[in-house]
Amino acid sequence: MSQIDIQVPTWKLVEVGRVVLIRSGPYTGKLAAIVEIIDHKRALVDGPSSQETKVVPRHALALSHVTLTPFTIPRLPRAAGTGPVKKLWEKAEIDSKWASSSFSQKQEKTDRRRNLTDFERFKVLRLRKQARYEVQKAHAKIRATAS
């Protein structure tokens, strides 16, 4: 018989300690951790970020308004207070993990592009044209030597 390697799917489950990204409401774009599951549609979240502008106070939030992230706070007790959540948040280094994630970097890039001035958009256009010209010149040189 051959060896079969069975792998458990790595689904992002709604669980106590799961870090979520809030998609709507007054805290849009901020991270929070699920502290308690109220029912099948709502959870109690708390976001004790180390940056003052990204803090989310403890409140009930509909699960339809969040995106589950792959990050969790291990061994977070149910209904833990803000103090223990903050300590475990910093111990798990959630802020640095989020900053290095591809989703966060893509979001920062789109925000930066969205806030460009007219002149900055013009400079981006010129740089893209210049890069495209260099690529086309290199391709033409390759085609010329190939034939």
From TrEMBL:
SMART domains: KOW
GO cellular component entries: cytosolic large ribosomal subunit
Localization in the cell: Cytoplasm
MF term (GO), any: RNA binding
KOW domain residues: 13-40
Family of this protein: Belongs to the eukaryotic ribosomal protein eL14 family.
Record function comment: Component of the ribosome, a large ribonucleoprotein complex responsible for the synthesis of proteins in the cell. The small ribosomal subunit (SSU) binds messenger RNAs (mRNAs) and translates the encoded message by selecting cognate aminoacyl-transfer RNA (tRNA) molecules. The large subunit (LSU) contains the ribosomal catalytic site termed the peptidyl transferase center (PTC), which catalyzes the formation of peptide bonds, thereby polymerizing the amino acids delivered by tRNAs into a polypeptide chain.
Official protein name in the record: KOW domain-containing protein
